């Protein structure tokens, strides 16, 4: 048993807040943070509370007790924190029930959410499987595709095709379609199923489509069609794989090639969904629809974990005609009423306002604030799309130094690899947006 902390009494459910030094000591001993060693080598900041677009710290860091959140808590808190509409949705649902199993039971928040998602996503997505997290929704999407072909008597169609530079999550099947060389999961090369990888799409959202690359995609899908269950890609923006943007035209190429060669198409909209790129879903830039779409992150406005895999009637009916006519997947917290209720409220909150203008305003602010960054030493590229701003360096970022510089500017950022970037909440005001840009510039200079 670990020794008790000085002061005695052990650790009980929080009633009186623990002092920051005690919290940090407990954190160092016991808490394994994402993408970090155990024990951690970098001391995290202790967040005491959050409201609007600000994180309040329990102890000063670099002279700051309050930081503007430039990350939307990993791209999810699009409405900021403590939004009264979302708070009320959680409170109202909590007065009814916090959870009930979804096997054999149903409830209004989940049904409303599924219907709302079908209403706002591209036709012909009609059926919704609610999951715990984005990565799990990709697992479910892959399982749908594999089972579809088995049900049709074609079990040999069991590989996936994607392009390099992608990221789809940290569970098993999603790891297999993350970039196998430059990504976070190359440790598992030789263990994960070997998928088919196309070259990374040429960069540039506004760049004209490269006919040679389009031909490369068509040829690869055609060559492997007999063994491919699906093509799985992030549309328009490749997120954690490198924050790169590509022409929407390649989505149309994929749709046409998948139709021609009888391969399913999956769009991972976990990071891009709910307006982040300037379209409600990034597929809208291309005007095409996938056979399966994954959504998450901003689905609940950052309040609770929930994601979904939507599919067409073709996929659902194909599975239902098989020898095993059910999708054998059932998370314990599937369809959680609290998460479903706040997701419904978040979607309505987004669509009841001029969200597209808000995102366009943020895009303009990021372009203006980062306009001079291309001339800075060490900055290789500057790119902005919707409410996404990216500075790509010509070297691996010193994350600790870059984070400290951003905090000194009063901004919370989370750089990685050779990237310093921001995805602010849509409610970020112009003055705070300028501060975020200053934090990006400071982090790039320090990192």
TrEMBL record:
Reactions catalysed: (8S)-8-amino-7-oxononanoate + S-adenosyl-L-methionine = S-adenosyl-4-methylsulfanyl-2-oxobutanoate + (7R,8S)-7,8-diammoniononanoate
Compartment(s): Cytoplasm
Modified residues (N6-(pyridoxal phosphate)lysine): 297
Alphabetized SUPFAM superfamilies for the sequence: PLP-dependent transferases (SSF53383)
Keywords assigned by UniProt, alphabetized: Aminotransferase, Biotin biosynthesis, Cytoplasm, Pyridoxal phosphate, S-adenosyl-L-methionine, Transferase
Gene3D superfamilies assigned: Aspartate Aminotransferase, domain 1, Type I PLP-dependent aspartate aminotransferase-like (Major domain)
Cofactor(s) for this UniProt protein: pyridoxal 5'-phosphate
Pathway: Cofactor biosynthesis; biotin biosynthesis; 7,8-diaminononanoate from 8-amino-7-oxononanoate (SAM route): step 1/1
Residues where pyridoxal 5'-phosphate binds: 134-135, 268, 331-332
Enzyme Commission number(s) from the entry: 2.6.1.62
Family matches, as PROSITE patterns: AA_TRANSFER_CLASS_3 (PS00600)
Top-level taxon of the source organism: Bacteria
Molecular function as annotated in GO: adenosylmethionine-8-amino-7-oxononanoate transaminase activity
Subunit structure: Homodimer.
Function: Catalyzes the transfer of the alpha-amino group from S-adenosyl-L-methionine (SAM) to 7-keto-8-aminopelargonic acid (KAPA) to form 7,8-diaminopelargonic acid (DAPA). It is the only aminotransferase known to utilize SAM as an amino donor.
NCBIfam families: bioA, PRK05964.1
Protein name: Adenosylmethionine-8-amino-7-oxononanoate aminotransferase
Natural source organism: Streptomyces polygonati
Gene name of the record: bioA
